[in-house]
From TrEMBL:
Upper classification of the organism: Bacteria, Pseudomonadati, Pseudomonadota, Betaproteobacteria, Rhodocyclales
Domain of life (superkingdom): Bacteria
Protein name: Calcium/sodium antiporter
Pfam families: Na_Ca_ex
Alphabetized UniProt keyword annotations: Membrane, Transmembrane, Transmembrane helix
């Protein structure tokens, strides 16, 4: 019963944190003269991925990095096929050009690269270092873009006072991290009761739990009319999960897992991103959201079959 109460408390904390963090992120973007999309893909993505990072480090140190891998790959499916899908069902999203040029290609490459590295059935420390190098290259490109935008002094909507924006973002981040940790602990407690495989625990309940901050941030950003924060957070979070978080876990402890289970998460994650790729006008319509929700249902069914085999 405590685990179920924890899930409810975590969801409430995520809602509060998401509201405060979106307000702070947009205000910070205004103060720094940087587009909210960049803030979403970097600051917001890192903040909402902090539960996954915590799970990654703790599980790797405990000698169960399979949970970290399942969490990261499962979260990437949840982020696009469930969370972004829900945002799209609310209303279509206009994708900023810089996201299409910088973030979408990298997000698509992440599952491909991970799959290639995992062909031998293990992600070694060398593989982890390679993923980390790719992450740093993408982050450098995002920083360069932010500097360019600051020079252009692009006008965005937000809170003009830096202090209020930073305070709101920090408090919101605190709630998001707290929510993620509570939900992860509760989800693991419920799942381990049934003796489920470690990778599958990570790819399902833990992934949903650690993705709660992304859900809160993305949906609230969409409701507030900040599409660029919504999309940027999802894409950035997927890149953080696939490159940084998996890399950290592999560097701490090489990861071995059932290739079939890993393939389901990788393929579904790749298809979800392909479905989301925006057309020339950059507008991702509601129909894509419905397709993504159908894909998420297929993913859950495939994972469930793996649990019974």
């Amino acid at each position: 019963m405590n685990d179920y109460l924890g899930l409810v408390a975590g969801i409430v904390a995520a809602g509060i944190g998401g509201e405060l963090f979106v307000r702070g992120a947009v205000g910070l973007a205004h103060w720094a003269r940087i587009s909210p999309g960049i803030i979403g893909a970097t600051v917001a993505a890192f903040a909402t991925s902090s539960p996954e990072l915590s799970v990654s480090v703790n599980s790797a140190l405990d000698g169960t990095p399979e949970i970290a891998l399942g969490d990261a790959l499962g979260s990437n499916v949840v982020n696009v096929a469930l969370i972004l899908a829900l945002a799209l069902v609310i209303a279509g999203i206009q994708s900023p050009r810089d996201s299409v040029r910088r973030d979408f290609p990298v997000a698509l490459l992440v599952p491909v690269i991970t799959g290639v590295l995992f062909l031998d059935g293990v992600l070694s420390r060398v593989d982890g270092l390679l993923l980390l190098a790719l992450f740093l290259a993408w982050l450098s490109a995002a920083v360069i873009e932010a500097r360019r935008q600051r020079s252009a002094a692009e006008a965005v909507i937000g809170t003009p006072r830096a202090g209020a924006a930073i305070a709101s973002a920090v408090v919101g981040l605190g709630f998001l991290v707290l929510a993620g940790n509570i939900i992860v602990i509760s989800a693991k407690g419920i799942a381990t009761t049934y003796g489920i495989d470690e990778f599958i625990i990570g790819a399902t309940l833990v992934a949903i739990g650690t993705s709660t901050p992304e859900l809160a941030t993305t949906v609230i950003a969409k409701l507030r009319g900040h599409d660029e924060v919504s999309l940027g957070t999802i894409l950035g979070s997927n890149i953080f999960n696939g490159l940084l978080i998996v890399a950290v876990a592999a560097i701490i402890h090489p990861i071995e897992a059932d290739w079939r289970e890993v393939a389901v998460a990788l393929v579904c994650g790749l298809i979800a991103l392909a479905v989301t790729w925006p057309p020339r006008d950059g507008f991702i319509n509601r129909r894509r959201g419905v397709i993504l929700l159908a894909l998420y249902t297929v993913y859950i069914v495939a994972i469930a079959q793996g649990m019974t085999n």
